[in-house]
Amino acid sequence: MNGKQCDGWVHSLRGQTICFTGGVFIDGKRLVRRECVERAEKRKAQCKEEFSGQITLVVHGDLAGKVVTDEKRKYSEKLVAADRERERGHHVCVVDADGFADLINGRGHPARCRTLKRFPGGSRQVLVLPETGDGVLGGPLRASQASRHQPGELSLDLAALDKGTEAHESTVAALIAHLARRKVQVCRPARRAPRFDAGWSRDKDVFIAEVKSLTGGREEQQIRLGIGQVLDYAHQMRVAGAHGQVRPVLVLERRPTDPRWASLAEHSGILLTWGPDFPGC
Fold first, then answer.
1. Which of 27, 42, 88, 155 is spaced 20 to 30 Å from 167 by Cα?
2. Distance between CA 109 and CA 189 in Å, rounded?
3. Long-range Cβ pairs for the range 148-155 (8 Å, 24+)
4. How do the domains of the chain map onto residue ranges?
């Protein structure tokens, strides 16, 4: 990044100059520093032991939300330095261990650039702030990236049902544009999250949506399928301990013909909405 505007995400390790602070756990397994460096360099990054003006990315080895205070091990020094650089107009990105795991995965998963909070009065305590949707929301969604269910996932031919292709993609694109007008960023799933179609956060709520076209298939079948999928995704995220209140959303291409679906969705805790105006979103 090196002083350029950050869009809130680190999209790649390529060209980054990295330093590490704290122990790094990747999906439950601790990596020694040498392994972290090797994996970062494999993704075309450079690694430095100490913080300097060359650093563009700090990997904070613990989960977001921890106060970093171990001065004897210089545990907080690099984060304090990154925060000072930000104040000077040189944006240094910070990712946590989960973000680093996303970046070394090699499948195009971005990592959230973390917000830092330094305690007042010259304190050397730094808080790496969590975000609503951690563990659920990945990077920004583009309409062409809308997730697709794998063949054989269900005995039903989902490829024919939820592709509708142009109808599905145009509904996703319209949803992205609608929420963008409200200054809300639509995201794809995080690396370890269920493969929902679209997600976003607002205050303490994280919304996960399944998008269903109603073109070329039975409306009743599509809606029933979407309800089951989005309830399953929401349950998985709650069990996994997602940061924020998980809200399932079923997004339809258009208003359903039968009004009973609105009542069913409300009683099931689902936000039911549809194009082109997406009421409730």
1. 155
2. 9
3. 149/195
4. 9-129, 137-274
DSSP summary character for residue 251: E
Q: Considering only CA atoms, which of 96, 101, 95 is closest in space to residue 26? A: 101
How many Cβ atoms are within 10 Å of 201's Cβ, its own excluded? 21
Per-residue model confidence as pLDDT tens digits over 167-184: 899 999 999 999 999 999
Sheet holding 187-189, edge to edge: 137-140, 187-189, 198-202, 205-212, 245-252, 271-274
- For residues 83 and 78, give the distance between their C-alpha atoms in angstroms, rounded to a whole number: 9
Which residue has better confidence, 17 or 135?
17
Instruction: Check whether 30 has a pLDDT greater than 60.
Output: yes
Structure tokens belonging to residue 113:
């650039």
The domain defined by 9-129 folds into Rossmann fold (3.40.50)
Strands 9-10 and 111-112 come out as antiparallel
